[in-house]
Model the fold of this input.
Amino acid sequence: MTSHFLPLIGAQPQEREDAARNRHLLLDAAALLVAERGVDAVIMDAVACRAGVGKGTVFRRFGSRSGLMQALLDHSERELQHGFMFGPPPLGPGADPVDRLVAFGRARIAIVEVQGDVQRAAEDSREFRFAAPARTLSIAHIVALLREANVDGDRELIAAFLFATLDAALLLHQIRDQGIPVDRIEESWTDLVRRLTRN
Done:
């Protein structure tokens, strides 16, 4: 049971209607820039211009480019979190913990494949890389599954080591530079989890 991990990362206090509208407008503009020109095109000036607002609005809303990158990831992270906390098995509650851990890794790999450049840009920030709420929550989820699967040892470190294999920069290097097919990475993740959890 993982409900004690709430609230979801990126959960925002209730926003004024105009503030929420501006946030969505800016994130839509940033997402369009990524789709059209790649992640390097997502600079504060370009986002402001595309959204039809002043650059100061972007800085006030997100603080920095890395903050904007993190916000772009927020939606998919929320969906993944909702899936492993409340969704149907095998990702969600009700499945065997080993099957859930396999499903978690596969879901994270799918996010990297679709949004890898944005995720890597967000992770490049020292401010977010190891203290990001999404990383903390994911590792806590892995620890809970390892405990439920009766895996011995230092579960927090084992969880951190497992999560390191799902690092966006590493996965993109494997997929793009080494030409490793995504399904091979997914199968290797499954094999790693099953070997680690074998009693």
User: Anything to note?
Assistant: The longest helix spans residues 97-123. Residues 1-11 have pLDDT under 50 and may be disordered.
